[in-house]
Write a structure and sequence with these properties.
CATH superfamily of the largest domain: endopeptidase domain like (from Nostoc punctiforme)
CATH topology of the largest domain: endopeptidase fold (from Nostoc punctiforme)
Helix content: 40-55%
Oligomer: single chain
Number of helices: 8
Order of helices and strands: HHHHEEHHHEHEEEEE
CATH architecture of the largest domain: Alpha-Beta Complex
Shape: elongated
Largest sheet: 6 strands, antiparallel
Distance between the termini: 68 Å
Structural class: alpha+beta
Strand order of the largest sheet: 3-8-4-5-6-7
CATH class of the largest domain: Alpha Beta
Length: 240
């Protein structure tokens, strides 16, 4: 009877584990990154990591897996960074360009859909994660996770974003400002915080355009309403 009960318990556990994996995958695939979805992702990922530790039948494997998971979590959370590097402007611009033609999705923040502030933040997260993983710099990985966790609208990006950004200057519009005092990787918040565009250099801007419903690259002298809106120019502090 106990054997039957144990067998049924294992089947239920494996079913719940599989359902949790599916839930995690669905949350990661969909583009919207609201606080609700972030909480589900973190909760589901935690449940998966804990569940993996109890899937094997052998006690030694369970202990080894649990130890590995705890070491990984504590290492990412507390070990100091190694290199002191920051993503270069070129790396950030490449990350921005990787989103060209991605659909516009309000609240989106990945390759399946982004909005105007989403592309600015998603590319910054990507650039930090790539460099952090390549150099084993846990400080950068923590910074990328923190940027992912703390969402921000275009208006909040121009208001300092928890000390991550700073205002360079303002102008009547992007077109009126031209390239003055801007470097690739800087960005503009226009129309009093309604929209954001990132500067690629050489008179080019990238944006997730709600009218065109996709990510596009614009020329400063091109035809687009956002180029003629009042603009505040902003820089990631790590580029200072």
């Amino acid at each position: 009877m106990n054997g039957l009960g144990n067998g049924r318990g294992k089947r239920v556990f494996r079913l719940l584990f599989a359902c949790n994996l599916v839930l995690l995958a669905l949350c990661l695939i969909q583009p919207i990154r609201s606080g609700f979805f972030r909480l589900i992702i973190v909760s589901s990922l935690s449940a998966c990591l804990i569940g993996v530790c109890f899937l094997p039948d052998r006690r030694s494997l369970r202990i080894a897996l649990l130890g590995g998971v705890m070491t990984l979590v504590l290492g990412v959370a507390f070990l100091p960074g190694r290199t002191g590097e920051h993503p270069s402007r070129d790396a950030y611009v490449r990350a921005l360009r990787s989103y060209i033609s991605v659909p516009y999705v309000w609240g989106g923040e990945n390759a399946r859909g982004v909005d105007c502030s989403g592309i600015v933040r998603a590319a910054w997260i990507d650039a930090q994660l790539r460099l952090g993983c390549r150099t084993a710099d846990l400080r950068l990985i923590r910074s990328a996770i923190a940027t992912w966790w703390f969402d921000a609208s275009a208006k909040e990006l121009a208001a300092g974003y928890l000390g991550r950004t700073r205002v360079l200057h303002s102008a009547p519009s992007i077109r009126a400002n031209g390239d003055a005092e801007l470097l690739p990787g800087d960005f503009a918040v226009v129309a009093r915080g309604v929209h954001a565009l990132a500067y690629l250099g050489d008179g080019q801007w990238i944006e997730a355009d709600p009218g065109l419903q996709k990510v596009v690259v614009l020329q400063t002298d091109g035809a687009n309403q956002w180029l003629d809106s009042s603009a505040v120019f902003v820089r990631w502090r790590q580029f200072d």
